[in-house]
Design a protein that fits this description.
The chain is of the alpha/beta class. It has a single domain, classed as P-loop containing nucleotide triphosphate hydrolases (Rossmann fold). It is built from ten helices and ten strands. α5 crosses α6 and α6 runs parallel beside α7. It is globular, with a radius of gyration of 18 Å. The C terminus is likely disordered.
Length: about 270
């Protein structure tokens, strides 16, 4: 379980990006974080995995206070927080298998990491997960030879190789065509159930949030102004989150990027 209390993030003397957020996420939950650009969605995710240092507040994952951790303790805690990125963050010149096994770097010695000598159990788990998401046939392909959807599935498997207790996804469908976006959202939804894994998804596509998640959290200017079921996310909530202006196209249908990429191969 993830428990966030009074989370605040301020850069210098500017107005805080996050203003005292409170959030509790149970196991198996798939939670969408929505809001206009600059609302604090990505900052919140990066505070959770400590890619960004919170200014104040508490972040507790399964009883462990993450904000207080430093050094080796922080590195060990980060192993339990998987991250799926909008831009995939793969190493293009490496194979799919090598990218997937990068999810185990926090568990192996420096020699094993440099020489890429991973335990057989890690390799077997990698194949199992790749088969689960439909990319096992690409194990020896370079990452830059894959389509966008295939690359994002590599990113998902890499995160799962960490054996995470929490999965964060930062705009995981923004660079994908509409059909592949739906597939990735369905995959995240099913993995949360299969693995008893809480999943937080930062997403602009409100239609997908309402379809594939069981809870929507809306941010505006660093404050949480909506927290409820998709069926309760109505026009009034949308108007409050986007400030009384028409929501961007990608908040109600697919993202502009996705619209331009309809021609990409689907997985």
């Amino acid at each position: 379980m993830l428990e966030i209390s009074h989370l605040t993030k301020r850069y210098g003397h500017d107005e805080p990006v996050l203003k005292g957020l409170d959030l509790r996420v149970e196991d198996n939950s798939v939670v969408a974080i929505v809001g206009a650009s600059g609302a604090g969605k990505s900052t919140m995710l990066r505070c959770i995995n400590r890619l960004v240092e919170p200014t104040s507040g508490s972040i507790i994952l399964n009883g462990m206070e993450l904000v207080a951790l430093r050094g080796g303790a922080l590195r060990r805690a980060r192993r339990k927080i998987g991250m799926v990125f909008q831009g995939f963050n793969l190493i293009d010149r490496l194979t799919v298998m090598e990218n997937v096994l990068a999810g185990r770097l926090g568990y192996v010695s420096l020699y094993q990491a440099i020489s890429r000598r991973f335990p057989q159990t890690d390799i077997e788990r990698a194949f199992t997960l790749m088969e689960r998401v439909g990319i096992a046939q690409y194990a020896n392909k370079r990452a830059d030879e894959l389509s966008g959807g295939e690359r994002q599935r590599v990113g998902v498997v890499r995160a799962l190789m960490q054996e995470p207790e929490l999965l964060l996804a930062d705009e995981p469908t923004a660079s994908l065509d509409p059909r592949t976006s739906e597939q990735i959202m369905m995959l995240l939804q099913s993995l949360a159930s299969e693995l008893s894994l809480p999943v937080l998804i930062n997403i602009h596509n409100v239609a997908q949030a309402k379809t594939y998640t069981e809870r929507i959290v809306g941010l505006r200017h660093g404050k949480m102004i909506f927290d409820g079921a998709p069926d309760d996310f109505n026009e009034e909530a949308l108007d409050a989150i986007y400030g009384g202006i028409e929501a961007p196209d990608d908040a109600t249908t697919e993202s502009p990027t996705a619209s331009r990429e309809v021609g990409h191969d689907a997985i």
